[in-house]
Design a protein that fits this description.
Blueprint: H1 21-46, H2 50-59, E1 64-73, E2 82-86, E3 93-98, E4 104-108, E5 119-121, E6 126-129, E7 134-136, E8 143-145, E9 154-160, E10 163-170
The structure holds FE2/S2 (inorganic) cluster.
FE2/S2 (inorganic) cluster (FES) is lined by residues 111, 113-114, 116, 129, 131-132, 134, 146-148.
Length: 174
């Protein structure tokens, strides 16, 4: 057995001879600073109002105009009558009520309590949710009785060429 084989190539070699403490510390500090700057950047971006903007958009709290959609011909809805329709999507139930010769109101008619459909009861002049006896003012959509606390989202309508069109959904701040 030769001595050569077991000879340690460097003094006190433990395979860490190429690591320099000072240099490592510099790297550590640099890495830490990078992390700090990164964290500050993330904080700065996250504290911008993007979150609020996104939340507002997701929750649909702002007024929104959609592609206008014909609800009915004027001749097909008498004064005091109502017509069901969908707006803006095919699953968004809505109701149009003709209050006078010229005045129409429309709402998304999922009750703001637990989303049961709200009906127009002509004889009582009220919009009623049968689930828990909720009631809404037909001229404003505001709740007037029962558990609902928020108004029905109003749909802006326009009359054009003897037909009524849905134009926009008016949202309310929570
Ligand atoms: S769901 Fe309409 S009152 Fe409860």
């Amino acid at each position: 057995m030769s001595d050569q084989k077991n000879k340690i190539p460097f003094n006190e070699d433990n395979y860490t001879h190429n690591i320099q403490r000072n240099h490592e510390r510099t790297l550590d500090r640099r890495g830490f600073m990078k992390t700090l700057v990164g964290a500050a950047g993330v904080f700065a971006v996250s504290s911008l109002p993007w979150g609020a903007v996104a939340a507002k958009e997701l929750m649909g709290l702002s007024d929104k105009e959609y592609q206008h959609k014909k609800i009915t011909d004027v001749s097909k809805i008498g004064i005091g009558e109502a017509v069901d329709f969908k707006f803006p999507g095919e699953h968004d139930d809505a109701i149009l009520i003709r209050l006078s010769e010229e005045k129409y109101v429309a709402y998304q008619n999922a009750c703001t309590h637990l989303r049961c459909p709200v009906f127009w009861v002509k004889e009582e002049g009220e919009m009623i949710c049968p689930c828990h006896h909720g009631k809404f003012d037909v001229t404003t959509g505001a709740p007037t009785a029962g558990p609902p606390r928020r108004p029905l989202p109003e749909i802006q309508v326009k009359v054009e060429n003897d037909a009524v069109y849905a134009v926009r959904v008016k949202r309310y701040e929570a």
